[in-house]
Design a protein that fits this description.
A hairpin with a 2-residue loop joins strand 6 and strand 7. The chain has three helices and 17 strands. It has 308 residues and is an alpha+beta fold. Helices cover 35% and strands 25% of the residues. The protein has two domains: 36 residues; 182 residues, Jelly Rolls (Sandwich), CATH 2.60.120. The strands form two sheets. Strands 1, 2, 4, 9, 10, 11, 13, 14, 15, 16 and 17 form an eleven-stranded antiparallel β-sheet that branches.
Length: 308
C-alpha cells in the first residue's frame, strides 16, 4: 500500500514538474514577445521619419513637374508664335477680311445701283443708234491714265480707212481709236492695231485703256516699241476723230458705251442708246449723271434701232 502511495505521489510530482516547466517556457516566450514589441515601439519614430521623407520627396517632385508644365503652358500661350499671337493674328485676319468683304459688298451694291438704273419714262431705250458719217457726240470726259472704256459696236462700212471711232486728241498718245481697213488702230501709250479682222454687220466688244487694247477679249499687241505720253487736252468724242481732221467720221452702230475710272467696278459713265418720246431725238442717255447726249455734228439725226 505504501509502495502504491509512493508511486502515485511520484507521478503527481512528475506531472507538476512538467507543468511548471511548461509554464516557465510560456512566460519566457511571452517575455520575448513583450521585449520585441517594446523594441518595435521604440523604433516607430524612425519609420515615421522614413515615411515622411518619402512623402516630402514625392511632393517636391510633383511641384517641380507642375512648374515645368506651367512653364511649357506659358511658353505655348505667350511665347513667340504662341497661342496668344495666333489668336491675335486670327482676330486681325478676320477683321481685315471682314473689312475687305464689306468694301467689296459696298462696291458691288454701288455697281448694281449704277448699272440697274432705269431710263426716265420720257425716254425709250433702243438696241443701238447708228451714225451715217456726219454725226458725233461729245462726252465731256477727259482721258486719263486710269480711264478704261468698254463699248459694243458694229462697223457698217468696214472697208473705209482712217475713220474716227472715239478720240481725245488727234496725235500719238491722244486716246484715239481709228477704223482702218477692216480693222482697228489704237493710239495709247503705244500704237496697237489689227487689220482685216472685222466683218460687215458683225458686233464687236472693245476694251480700251491707255495701256491696253482688246477686241472680244483678245489682246492686240503693240505695232512698235515706241511709247508716248498721254495727251488729254480735249474731251472724248464718239463716232468721230478730231472734227475736220483726216480721221473724219465713222459709220457704225453703237450698242453700249461705258467709262470706268481705275477698275471695272468704278463706273463713271454708262451711256444707253435711246430717243426722247416727245420729239423723237436720238442720242445716248447717261444713267450715272442723268444727262442726254445728242448729235453735235452735221446732217441728219442718228438712226434708232428697235425698241427694247
Amino acid at each position: 500500500m505504501r509502495n502504491r502511495i509512493k508511486l502515485y505521489s511520484s507521478a503527481i510530482y512528475q506531472k507538476w514538474k512538467w507543468n511548471t516547466q511548461q509554464s516557465k517556457l510560456i512566460r519566457q516566450e511571452k517575455t520575448k514577445n513583450e521585449q520585441l514589441g517594446s523594441r518595435l515601439k521604440n523604433n516607430t519614430f524612425f519609420y515615421k521619419n522614413a515615411t515622411s521623407g518619402i512623402t516630402l520627396l514625392a511632393l517636391i517632385v510633383t511641384i517641380i513637374t507642375l512648374l515645368i508644365l506651367a512653364g511649357v503652358t506659358l511658353n505655348l500661350a505667350l511665347g513667340s508664335n504662341g497661342l496668344l499671337d495666333k489668336a491675335t493674328l486670327a482676330s486681325n485676319t478676320w477683321a481685315n477680311e471682314t473689312k475687305e468683304e464689306t468694301a467689296q459688298m459696298d462696291n458691288a451694291i454701288s455697281f448694281i445701283d449704277k448699272t440697274a438704273k432705269l431710263l426716265p419714262t420720257e425716254y425709250q431705250k433702243v438696241e443701238y443708234i447708228e451714225s451715217l458719217g456726219t454725226q458725233y457726240i461729245n462726252t465731256n470726259k477727259y482721258p486719263s491714265e486710269s480711264m478704261k472704256i468698254n463699248m459694243e459696236l458694229t462697223l457698217t462700212a468696214p472697208s473705209e480707212n482712217y475713220k474716227g471711232i472715239i478720240c481725245g486728241t488727234w496725235n500719238y498718245g491722244g486716246f484715239l481709236l481709228e477704223q482702218i481697213t477692216k480693222g482697228f488702230k489704237w493710239h495709247g501709250q503705244k500704237v496697237m492695231q489689227k487689220s482685216n479682222c472685222i466683218e460687215e454687220e458683225t458686233k464687236y466688244e472693245l476694251n480700251l485703256s491707255f495701256y491696253d487694247f482688246n477686241i472680244d477679249s483678245t489682246q492686240i499687241v503693240n505695232s512698235s516699241n515706241t511709247t508716248y505720253t498721254l495727251i488729254n487736252k480735249n474731251p472724248i468724242t464718239i463716232f468721230a476723230g478730231v472734227v475736220g481732221n483726216r480721221s473724219g467720221y465713222s459709220k457704225m452702230k453703237l450698242y453700249s458705251f461705258k467709262i470706268y475710272d481705275g477698275d471695272y467696278e468704278n463706273l463713271i459713265m454708262n451711256l444707253v442708246p435711246c430717243y426722247n418720246k416727245l420729239d423723237n431725238v436720238k442720242g445716248l442717255y447717261d444713267l450715272i449723271e442723268g444727262n442726254f447726249y445728242t448729235n453735235q455734228g452735221k446732217g441728219d439725226d442718228f438712226i434708232a434701232g428697235p425698241d427694247i
